[in-house]
Amino acid sequence: MSKRTRRNFTPREKVAILKQHLVEGQPVSDVCDAHGLNPNMFYRWQKEFFENGAAAFEKEDRGRVKAEQRRFAELEAKLKKKDMVIAEIMEDLIAEKKRPGGR
Q1: Which H or E element spans position 81?
Q2: From CA 44, how far away is CA 37, in angstroms rounded?
Q3: What predicted TM-score, i.e. pTM, was given to this entire model?
Q4: Cα(68)–Cα(88) distance, rounded to whole angstroms?
Q5: How far is it, in rounded angstroms, from Cα 32 to Cα 43?
Q6: What is the pLDDT of residues 31-84, one digit of tens each?
Q7: Strand ranges inside 1-103, DSSP E
Q8: Are 12 and 18 in contact (CB under 8 A)?
Q9: By C-alpha distance, which of 52, 54, 21 is closest to 35?
Q10: From the centroid of its chain, how far is CA 55?
Q11: CA angle, residues 57, 35, 56, in degrees to nearest 5
């Protein structure tokens, strides 16, 4: 009884294997035999490759991302300032309550 070890392929390796069939025209059976790969796994990779292929062509709108980052930083600074003001008000309120005759 021979025990097979499971091999993990990197994303680059998977693409290279798919390319052997899709670009170079090698039969799936030959590609799978060469890599010790089950054909079902090959077809699963191929399906995933085509379903997610559009991501390779999508580019983020860098201007929009930078504007969002800038806005985030501004809101963060504003929130920090509000926290400081609230802390000062709380200090004053506590000090007022501690004084004789305070609330």
Answers
A1: helix 62-98
A2: 11
A3: 0.52
A4: 30
A5: 10
A6: 999 999 999 999 999 999 998 887 777 666 667 778 888 999 999 999 999 999
A7: none
A8: no
A9: 21
A10: 12
A11: 5
